[in-house]
Amino acid sequence: MAESAAIPEPRRSPCDLSAAELCRLMARKELSSREVVAAHLERIEQHDRALNAFTRVFRERALAEAERADKEPRRGPLHGLPVSVKENLDIAGEATTFGVVGRAAVRATRDAAMVTVLREAGAIIIGRTNLSQLGLFAESRNPVFGQSAKPWSTKHTPGGSSGGEGAAIASGMSPLGIGTDIGGSIRVPAHFCGIAGIKPTLDRLPMRGIATGIAGQEAVRAMCGPLARTAGDLQFFFGALDPKRMSQLDGRVPPFEFAAVELGRPRIGLLIDDGVLTPSLAVQRAVRRAGDALLKRGCEIVPWNPPRAREAIFLQLAAMSADGGARLRRELRGQPIDPVLGSLMRIARLPSLLRQAIASVLADELPARTLRALGRKPVEEYWRLTGEIRAWRFEVLAAMDAAAIDLIVSPPFATPALPHGGAKNFVLAASASMLWNIAQLPAGVVPIARVREDEARRDDPRGMLGRLAANVDAQSAGLPVGAQIIGRPWAEPLVLAAMVVVEEEARRDADFPHTPRRL
User: Fold this and answer.
1) Which residues are catalytic?
2) CA 281 to CA 285: how far, in whole Å?
């Protein structure tokens, strides 16, 4: 009897492949850029009505650029790859609204430096993605573009403020995207959506031409960074960029090369609870799973906690609200304001004596401290806060030196993804991410697991934050959770090496949150 012919495996959709795989296949002419771009545009047509991840899709422009890319010599490592960017990155001829109606009439005259670098590396910008109004809360909703949802559950937010990117990448509508992060805005969407993302060391990537929520606020600065479905794609992204060119476009960027490294056997600090809000059961499990993965590869894992974590969080809140919300009120006067942002603005505007009086009668410590931290302050107080923030960074580095650790594993956020509207009065749940903006350290998030049915609870919730978290936990079964890995300044190669190892190990588990996630 003759042998039957082997049945060829069905060809995978370009939307199911990683960014690095797509670039390798296009370089070998096994896929064309037009095929790749068209597949992602088709996926956007299929899914974005439900997710509302994109604020603008450059369909015809992207297809035309893909056809040119197929005919031209390769421009760089990202040649022909579709990439999405958060709506606060300037694109010439487009309005950068940041979710503010009054900005819709102003068009950018040139691309953001990060967009220029992507294009010069060969990338094709297929669209811009949704965000929270002025990037100041952990959802992606605003009066201009509406509310984004995540592919794991459309009743939940993909996070914020770079949640449009999270939803686009997790659903396979984009293989690689750029977000920004001032308090977890890359890492929280990665955690909520089951993908990878990294906030680099401050000024590792160019920020020229990227809007910030409170212009001129420099005590804690935002940083742009990549999101993708795998940690390996984040490594690939950094290796694809020209650091000298980035330094030319934004002089704050040091012109040194990114060189991938092997993980080796570093000593790693395990941080489960920073003392602000106890993480959900599934989040704690994800952090321990990441620690176990690194231990299996020969790393030494030791318990570790940053010094004065609570104090650091309130330093950031105090500094960022030092004008009493005047800048935001002036820009948003007479315009629609998202309820979550409106709540923060009302608190910041309260007279100091009234805020202190209300705080003094509150039995719940964390809301009381938040009230005391927010609000207008004189210039000398702002300077003092900025000095304390910088000093705290050196305290953290000294504590890492004392413990002889080079990496930290921690939660990215206190809970899994929030139901829509759940960010109201819940800013402190992001403390585990905010700490590393304050310290200006590189921090990345890698997908680990999904919430089990028996983890969708919170035992003994305490205070207002505990009750809010219990409501989130009760609705979290099946949602993805991740772990955060933090390194020393400029140690992105080591952070990413650890992320790759952790993801490789976690992918072997039955409850790993595989993406792209179809609706």
Assistant:
1) 86, 161, 185
2) 6
pLDDT tens sequence across 159-174? 999 999 999 999 999 9
Is residue 197 within 8 A of residue 436, CB to CB? The reply is: no
- For tokens 């910088």, what's the residue? 390
Residue with token string 């620690």: 291
d(CA 160, CA 181): 9
Three-state secondary-structure class, residue 16: helix
Q: What angle do CA 484, 489, 494 make, to 5 degrees?
A: 55
Please state, as a whole number, how many other Cβ atoms lie within 10 Å of the Cβ of residue 81: 30
Helix (H, G, I), strand (E, B) or coil at 237: helix
Q: Where are the beta strands (DSSP E) in 265-316?
A: 267-270, 300-303
How far is 126 from 455, CA to CA, in rounded Å?
38
Q: What is the CA radius of gyration of the chain?
A: 22
Q: In terms of Cα–Cα distance, which of 209, 194, 188, 82 is closest to 140?
A: 188
pTM: 0.97
Q: Is the dihedral of CA 334, 337, 342, 344 positive or negative?
A: negative
Q: For residue 12, what pLDDT is reported? A: 86
Neighbouring residues of 487: CB distance < 8 A, sequence distance ≥ 6: 406, 407, 408, 441, 442, 443, 494, 495, 498
pLDDT tens by residue, 420-429: 999 999 999 9
Pairing of strands 176-181, 82-86: parallel
